[in-house]
Description:
Blueprint: H1 3-8, H2 10-24, H3 34-38, E1 53-55, H4 68-73, E2 82-86, E3 89-92, E4 95-97, E5 103-107, E6 120-124, E7 132-134, E8 163-166, E9 169-172, E10 185-187, E11 190-195, E12 198-200, E13 206-208, E14 212-217, E15 220-225, E16 228-230, E17 233-237, E18 240-247, E19 251-253, E20 266-269, E21 272-275, H5 278-284, E22 291-293, E23 299-303, E24 306-307, E25 331-335, H6 344-350, E26 354-355, H7 358-362, H8 367-370
Parallel strand pairs: 1-2, 2-5, 3-6, 4-7, 5-8, 6-9, 7-10, 8-11, 9-12, 10-13, 11-14, 12-15, 13-16, 14-17, 15-18, 16-19, 17-20, 18-21, 19-22, 20-23, 21-24, 23-25, 25-26
The structure holds 2-acetamido-2-deoxy-beta-D-glucopyranose (11 copies).
One 2-acetamido-2-deoxy-beta-D-glucopyranose binds at residues 351-354.
Amino acid sequence: MSVFKSSLNRSLLISFTATLLVRASHATSLPFNRTECQASTTDPLQGCPLGTLLVGTNATNTSSFTSIQSAILSLPRDNSSATILILPGVYEEQLNITRPGPLNLLGQTESPLNASSNTVSVIWHEATGNDVNTAPTLESSLTGSGPTGYAVPANISFGTSDFRAYNLDFTNDYLPYSAGPSLAVGVSYANAAFYYTRFFSYQDTVYVGKRGNAYFHQCVIAGQTDFLYGFGTPWIENSTLLLRGCGGGITAWKGTNTTTPNKYGVYVHASSVVPANTSIAADIKGKCSLGRPWNSLHRSIFAQTYLSEAIRAEGYTAWSSSEPRVDAVTFMAEFDDFGPGWDLEGRKAGNVTRVLTEEEWFSFSGPEKVFEDGAAWVDEE
Ligand SMILES: *[C@@H]1O[C@H](CO)[C@@H](O)[C@H](O)[C@H]1NC(C)=O
Ligand SMILES: *[C@@H]1O[C@H](CO)[C@@H](O)[C@H](O)[C@H]1NC(C)=O
Ligand SMILES: *[C@@H]1O[C@H](CO)[C@@H](O)[C@H](O)[C@H]1NC(C)=O
Ligand SMILES: *[C@@H]1O[C@H](CO)[C@@H](O)[C@H](O)[C@H]1NC(C)=O
Ligand SMILES: *[C@@H]1O[C@H](CO)[C@@H](O)[C@H](O)[C@H]1NC(C)=O
Ligand SMILES: *[C@@H]1O[C@H](CO)[C@@H](O)[C@H](O)[C@H]1NC(C)=O
Ligand SMILES: *[C@@H]1O[C@H](CO)[C@@H](O)[C@H](O)[C@H]1NC(C)=O
Ligand SMILES: *[C@@H]1O[C@H](CO)[C@@H](O)[C@H](O)[C@H]1NC(C)=O
Ligand SMILES: *[C@@H]1O[C@H](CO)[C@@H](O)[C@H](O)[C@H]1NC(C)=O
Ligand SMILES: *[C@@H]1O[C@H](CO)[C@@H](O)[C@H](O)[C@H]1NC(C)=O
Ligand SMILES: *[C@@H]1O[C@H](CO)[C@@H](O)[C@H](O)[C@H]1NC(C)=O
């Protein structure tokens, strides 16, 4: 399909996707077969929905965009659905997703169910900067510091209701060790889902901020210090957390004041927490904390997750010895974890980790129970 032809089809696409949007509010999977769209074919867009944009490091007649962000910026700022297919390559850029409509970013691959075979790598190098950020405005994405953080005004309108990334790698390689926040991904005032996607940084790799609902499925998230941080709601399913060292905690969460009731917090389910490699494994044995409270309203749960021997006997830890930030509401919890890093006696002795009963776990036991508007945008493949 030529670029010229796809732009002619734009108005057709919009009326076509209006129908799909209605379906999408009830459906969980994409309205097309992504395996066919992502496969490497003579016409790379074969199998993709009409109007799919193509990005390649080498512009040809089929790929009119040489950066992913230029393709994103070409889309109308409205509620229409869009899909972007990205050809193999290393893209040195920062992605900002601010439009409200559903957007799918697909990496070309022959192995759509294997993140280790991803062919598309997006790289950014910046202290405090994101590699990919999903938020309607810059202000709505701000983190702030201290126990309360940045006071985002209450009048921000919600951003995208359905952003999805499949088979992409996001790296913020500011420095090869913890040196302040260097985010690979940020999500605020948006629903964003990542499948078979890998995130690499050392500190604050994943940030989910105010009214951020983020779903991760079969992903890899690598970090050293506080590498899941924020005050929104990520659900991490069947994924690998790679420990590149131990600093702070794996999760650094805080309570949030929003106008919308939600079960903010970080939920890691049916996943694995393992050292990044065997040499680091020897250095960090028994040293990594599951998390610490950015403020005392921290909520996080590791459930039915494999914990390697890198995890400390007490599980979670206080913020610091001089400022523990742990009180009766602090909710640093586990349910049914296993592996050498699971130590019930150690958890009891530490007195900061809550070990949940099945009944206590039940009200958090699925993404539809914790995201503010349910999980209709979650693809459970
Ligand atoms: C999607 O396409 C692949 C490759 O053609 C095929 O194997 C698979 O069965 C299709 N999936 C569905 C749900 O149709
Ligand atoms: C690209 O353009 C060439 C020359 O016009 C044409 O022969 C070829 O089929 C085009 N390729 C695709 C994939 O559209
Ligand atoms: C770029 O695309 C052109 C036309 O398809 C091709 O001849 C060339 O080998 C490509 N270059 C690279 C570096 O892929
Ligand atoms: C997009 O949809 C939302 C929710 O239905 C609506 O409030 C908003 O006005 C729509 N925006 C545009 C640009 O159509
Ligand atoms: C993304 O947003 C940030 C913050 O507004 C800005 O500094 C950066 O230039 C933006 N990047 C792109 C590619 O638009
Ligand atoms: C996934 O891809 C990696 C890298 O190509 C390969 O080594 C591995 O065997 C693949 N895993 C499966 C289950 O196919
Ligand atoms: C929530 O808002 C109240 C009132 O503005 C403020 O006193 C409190 O510190 C806030 N708490 C958090 C955790 O942001
Ligand atoms: C939102 O509120 C801030 C101050 O709280 C104000 O400066 C801004 O103009 C408001 N924006 C809109 C779109 O109403
Ligand atoms: C192991 O991982 C650490 C942390 O990312 C890294 O510094 C080190 O170079 C890695 N070692 C090997 C042998 O890959
Ligand atoms: C994903 O789930 C399968 C099936 O339960 C399990 O074997 C695998 O270890 C899980 N992956 C991770 C990274 O935990
Ligand atoms: C800490 O110890 C107190 C006193 O025994 C107990 O009430 C509380 O539940 C313990 N907290 C945790 C998280 O184990």
